[in-house]
Amino acid sequence: MALNIKTFATLVSDQVTALQGAAAGLVDTAIGSILRSILESNSAVAIWIQQLIVNLLVTTRAATSSGDDLDSWMADFSFTRLAATAATGQVVFSRFTATNQAVIPVGTQVSTTDGSQAYLVTTDTTNAAYDPTLAGYLIAAGVTSVRVPVQAVTAGAAGNALEGTITVISGSVQYVDTVTNPVTFGTGEDAESDTDFRARFVLWIASLSKSTLSAIGYALSSMQNGVTYTLTENQTYSGLSQPGYFYAVVDDGSGAPSSTFLGQAYSAIDAVRGFTVTFGVFAPARVTANIAMTITLSAPAVRAEVVALVDAALEAYVAGLALGQTLPFTQLATIAYGASPYVTNVTGVMLNGSLADDLTATASQVIRAGTISVS
User: Fold this and answer.
1) Is residue 263 part of a domain?
2) How many domains does the structure of the chain reveal?
């Protein structure tokens, strides 16, 4: 039942009407009168009580709760919000003189040019330059650079960084002069939003009946933030008919998930699949989108800055495409116009050499940016 909310003026008016209706003569309720002051005091108390009731009703329903209140509501079902994911990527440490051996210790901190985001060097035993004895990455004498993995200190989408923006070494590393990130970092994800949290709760309820499409979908979506997937039944990955078999194409948002991630996805599905039902898990096939365009700017725009904004906007849009999602050709110009108010015209738009064709993807493919050329 909807709550009948009244404003302060309505509460005062209702009291005046009730009082005047019960009185034998005219009652003075003019502004400044003692009786008017009493009625307004009553209304103020009623407004306060009314707001308490509204706050209580909001926090007692998942549909209207938010933030910590929603977490508390879901906690009654032992259902928790997915945590934020820290951005990860590769940076290159370089030096001008390669006479001496240098070591990049694990835990070395680097940051963006403006100092807003910090990253720590992490351990990667598969990296040929990693030396477990030195607990770091070795730059041998005669070698000018080494590529190492880093992870954002603070989890969340704010840790994502555009290409070439991580340029500061916090402190100093002997015989090392510079650092940069050759590719964009895009794996950072904020904690699950209230809307997604509620949607996943509904999916979880549906998944309580195991061996269903919803159960498998919930298992995959609960691995981490940013997971997208497609499920195809009674058919092999190569397209042949095979009753009783299904396959999942799973992406972590990068377009090229690791074997570790795919193994985790397999385990998640295996926990809820039907007995004797067989399945496979595959990474998406990557469809490259090479984009080119020419933009016209109005004064007093700095061309290099606007080009960088358009380039970043195009890359972010393509990176956000999910499995099987089409990249509309006409959307490219729209993104360019929206990147900066200084963009007055967009011409020569090309997508993989085509002047008008959308780039499509099947349920087992994901579109990711290749070469982006904005001139």
Assistant:
1) yes
2) 4
